[in-house]
Design a protein that fits this description.
Blueprint: E1 3-8, H1 13-24, E2 29-32, E3 45-53, E4 56-57, H2 59-72, E5 76-82, H3 89-96, H4 99-104, E6 107-110, H5 122-137, H6 147-158
Parallel strand pairs: 1-2, 1-3, 3-5, 5-6
Antiparallel strand pairs: 3-4
Helix pairs in contact: 1-6
Flavin mononucleotide binds next to α1, β3 and α5.
Length: about 160
């Protein structure tokens, strides 16, 4: 089985998650969609990962899905998102990903996210400061990377063999 993990990340969390997932799927190719537009013809399984910002997936992930939707409908697909508010995952999915792609995907997961402040840009630091304050006020743990969800997606993919 030839697997592509195609991700778009702003501040490395999604990239880290793509790499953690890749360790569990030996032989998978991992591609940064901000740098490369991979041809998916060589793959029978395509996993798409994106960070969420202001409720949206990264434009590079959106473009990749838009450009390849017909082909994606013919291969195994899986989707993961990294975000600060995992409880909103369904809202983010429905808002950003074509329903027919969601319906056919063999695995859909939220891999959690990180609320680190550095090395975000100044505007990002301000947003994250507010978010962190809100987390503290509501005595809520900061979101972190969800290793269980990563393992679950790897299991779902390996079952396809
Ligand atoms: C400017 C900014 C906006 C964000 N907007 C959202 C959002 O709307 N919803 C959410 O759940 N998380 C939001 N987050 C949190 C990120 O999704 C989280 O930090 C994630 O780990 C980022 O992934 P990345 O490091 O791959 O870019 C935002 C973060 C930043 C810096």
């Amino acid at each position: 089985m030839k697997i592509l993990i195609a991700y778009a990340s702003n501040n490395d969390t999604t990239q880290m998650c793509a790499e953690l997932l890749g360790e569990k799927l030996p032989g998978a190719d991992i591609v940064n969609l901000r740098r490369t537009k991979p041809a998916i013809d060589d793959y029978d399984t395509v996993i798409i990962g994106s960070c969420i910002r202001f409720n949206d997936v990264h434009n590079a992930a959106k473009d990749f899905i838009g450009d390849n939707l017909d082909k994606l409908m013919k291969v195994n697909t899986a989707i993961f998102l990294c975000c600060g508010f995992p409880e909103k995952i369904n809202q983010y999915l429905l808002h950003n990903i074509p329903k027919k792609l969601l319906d056919k995907s063999v695995s859909i997961q939220c891999f959690g996210g990180r609320l680190k402040v550095k090395p975000y840009k100044l505007v990002d630091q301000l947003v994250m400061k507010i978010v962190k304050k809100n987390f503290k006020v509501s005595k809520r743990e900061f979101t972190s990377i969800d290793n269980e969800s990563i393992s679950k997606m790897a299991e779902d993919i390996l079952k396809l063999k």
